[in-house]
Specification:
301 residues, D-Maltodextrin-Binding Protein, domain 2, 2 domains, five-stranded mixed sheet, three-stranded antiparallel sheet
Length: 301
């Protein structure tokens, strides 16, 4: 009987010690999870410039001591917007005209200040921060081969009326569907292009144009291949396209995740002009260099 009682007391003591150890392990795990820094998730769309800008945000955040998770090359505009609304990503770079027309479904306009005011206010209502602008305007560019421009006298978008019956357009998937895209452009310019646009990945448009598969593409003025390939941008003589200022979109209170995160993103304000962005795009698209390496060189003091 005495032996049984001793065994019982010993068993109770072991259970008590095990329980206390389990509690201590649980508390340690909870403390670790509370103090461990949660990564800031940086996203981008699925074209070169957006990937470069996403990497730029990531490297600036890392330089500020933040832990970063990259979700680059995700998809198109609506994919990126859905991701930041849901919290799947915390920040990426969007363009003011794209936000206005494609995301917010507002009428297009040319007043830069008005566009940014409308978009900033609307994004605030959606629980997002529209800031800061990076300093360049990535407006759409209607592009043709130089030989065709010289032969047909193509200098402006209005001049496309001369070749509307024979020209073969080729665009990225979004441009054929967006309110500020092909349908609206034809209406604004009174164009009646007979051929149905060929839809293709953005990365294939320049190859298709230079190999004579299409005659007209919708690129961007900061694309790095326009000048090296000797292509011609047609002037938007009726000022159809709205401004497309590149702006950092972020979820609020990133400093709660990493102190200094918001200041790191704000430090990018007005640091890139059109020429610099064109050069960065060419380094990646033209010279086939690694995106992270190109961005690291840009950030060297």
């Amino acid at each position: 009987m005495i032996l049984d009682n001793a065994r019982s007391r010993s068993s109770q003591t072991c259970c008590h010690i095990a329980s206390r150890l389990a509690t201590l392990v649980l508390l340690a795990a909870l403390l670790t999870s509370c103090t461990e820094q949660r990564a800031i998730v940086v996203g981008s769309k699925n074209f070169t410039e957006s990937v470069i800008l996403g990497e730029l945000l990531a490297q600036k955040l890392e330089a500020a001591g933040c832990k970063v998770d990259r979700r680059l090359n995700m998809g198109g505009t609506l994919v990126a917007d859905a991701a930041i609304q849901s919290g799947a990503i915390d920040t990426y770079v969007e363009y003011s005209g794209t936000a206005l027309a494609a995301i917010l479904k507002r009428p297009t306009m040319n007043d830069r200040a008005a566009v940014n005011a409308i978009v900033s206010s609307a994004y605030g209502s959606r629980g997002l921060r529209w800031s800061p602008p990076l300093g360049f305007d990535n407006t759409f560019a209607m592009i043709v081969r130089k030989a065709d421009a010289e032969r047909d006298g193509l200098r402006t978008i209005s001049d496309l009326a001369r070749v509307a019956g024979t020209i073969r357009p080729g665009f990225g998937y979004e441009f054929t569907e967006r309110a500020d895209g092909w349908t609206g452009l034809q209406k604004a310019y009174g164009l009646r292009v007979e051929a149905t646009p060929r839809s293709m990945d953005l990365g294939l448009m320049y190859k298709a144009l230079t190999s004579d598969e299409v005659d007209l593409i919708a690129g961007a003025v900061t694309d790095g291949l326009i000048e090296p390939l000797g292509l011609v941008i047609l002037a938007d003589d009726r000022h159809y396209f709205p401004p497309y200022d590149a702006v950092v979109v972020r979820r609020p209170n990133l400093d709660e995740r990493c102190k200094g995160a918001e200041a790191a993103l704000e430090s990018l304000r007005n640091t890139l002009d059109d020429a610099t962005m064109r050069r960065l795009n060419h380094e990646v698209d033209g010279r086939k260099r690694d995106v992270a390496e190109v961005v690291r060189e840009l950030l060297v003091p």
